[in-house]
Amino acid sequence: MCMLLPGDQSSRGCLDEVQSKLNVDEEYVKALRTKSFIKIWDKVHGDEKITAALLESKCSSSSSSSFSPYAGAYNYISDRLLEPRQCDLSDMFKTSHLHHLLIDFFDSNTEACRMCVLLLRGVARTRSNYNVIRKIIKISRNTASSSSSTNTNEQCQFMFTKLAFFAKLENPLSSTVLLQLDKLRNQCRSVLDRLTKTHRRIGRKLKFMRLCNKIWGLLFIVAFGALGAVTLVLGVHSLVGIVVAATPILLTINLHTFMSFFKRVFKTKCFGSRRRSSGRVNMNMKKIDGQLDAAAKGVFILNQDFGTMSRLATRLHDEIEHIKTISRLCFRNQRRQMLEEVVKEIGAHERCFLEQLDELEEHVYLCLMTINRARRLVLEQHS
Q: Out of 44-53, 207-216, 240-249, which region has the weakest mean confidence (pLDDT)?
């Protein structure tokens, strides 16, 4: 921390550095808080049912039923956050011939949304549980700033009780949640591999079809050129001079017209239906290729987002377990000096812990934005 003195160059440099950091933070917030981000944030925090479901203690995050497709609260939240909703897409799956990998893509998106809901619940429960710790830190800081530098026996007993209470609370970002997150990442990798392989295979087929069309065009030009050469040779050796003289002129004038007519007749008589069928197949393959490409890009970004969230959730999980461990030890020893050291250590990391919690929540919202954006892009390719 530098002291700002008038005319001090180092002080001015320090002030410029602080202002530059603030400007970078402001630009980051502006870039992050887009309309889509604010829309999802409003959906979560503006719906009382969602807020109540996220804070519901009866729906344990460690139970397998909380991540089940039949969990009503999680289905409600997922249905509110997904765009378009999965129930609306189910009708489209029945009426349209959608590639089976695209159906797997939408299903994996639904599971990813449920995982985001589970993480949001973990963030909300962690923030609620941490209020107990913040009360202890507040008491300790108020005592330090007052005339009496030590806590009273009643205050110490209150803090011991609160630490014991926090130590007994379940970790909202439990190991089970982290395992489910890793399992979903593996599913995303599997879907991404299949999408990428199929996209490449269809791309090779399209390249082969384009190459065949080019070869067919070249062969047609060569065949027609050979026919013209034969006609000229026969014309030169003909006994009729007028025909011999007129043949090159007619060929020069009507070459383009004759080629178009011959090509149209030849294609219609011989390969008309086959070419039309090939054209439809080509268009369908291009359409599917575009859908698979959009889906693969969406799953790739989604997998990267889940990697970031997994690291943040693991870090928060370890920090919560550390606080619970030292709180449990402090309560067992019942020593005032140890209590002061524990509260001091927790208070020193309070800001960092809350920032990590906010960062995880922001990444969950960004992940939901990625899911909805990918779903919209795939549907645009389908229409």
A: 240-249
Which residues are CB-contacts of 234 (< 8 A; sequence separation ≥ 6)? none
Q: How many domains would you assign to the chain?
A: 1
Close Cβ partners of 71 (under 8 Å, ≥ 6 residues apart) = 59, 65
The residue range of the domain holding 229 is: 35-382
User: Does residue 345 lie within any of the structural domains?
Assistant: yes
Dig out the tokens for 98 from the structure: 């959608």
Q: If residue 318 lies in a helix (H) or strand (E), which one and from where to where?
A: helix 272-333
User: For 323-364, how does the pLDDT look when each residue is reduced to its tens digit (9 = 90+)?
Assistant: 999 999 999 988 888 998 999 999 999 999 999 999 999 999
Tell me, yes or no, whether 10 lies in a domain: no
Q: Count CB-CB contacts under 10 A for residue 172.
A: 26
Whether residue 3 has pLDDT greater than 50: no
pLDDT band at 252 (very low <50, low <70, confident <90, very high): low
As a whole number of Å, the CA-based R_g of the chain is: 35
| Residue 366 contacts residue 36 (beta carbons within 8 Å) | no
Give ∠ CA 353-354-355 in degrees, rounded to 5: 90
- Asked if residue 331 is part of any domain, the answer here is yes
Q: What is the mean pLDDT of residues 290-317?
A: 92
Average confidence score pLDDT of the chain: 75
Does residue 13 fall inside a structural domain? no
Question: What does the alpha-carbon distance between residue 68 and residue 62 come to, in Å, rounded to a whole number?
Answer: 12
d(CA 78, CA 75): 5
The two three-digit tokens of residue 130, written as one number: 């941490």
Q: What is the pTM of this model?
A: 0.70
With tokens 């969602």, the residue in question is 50
Q: Return d(Cα 177, Cα 172) in angstroms, integer.
A: 8
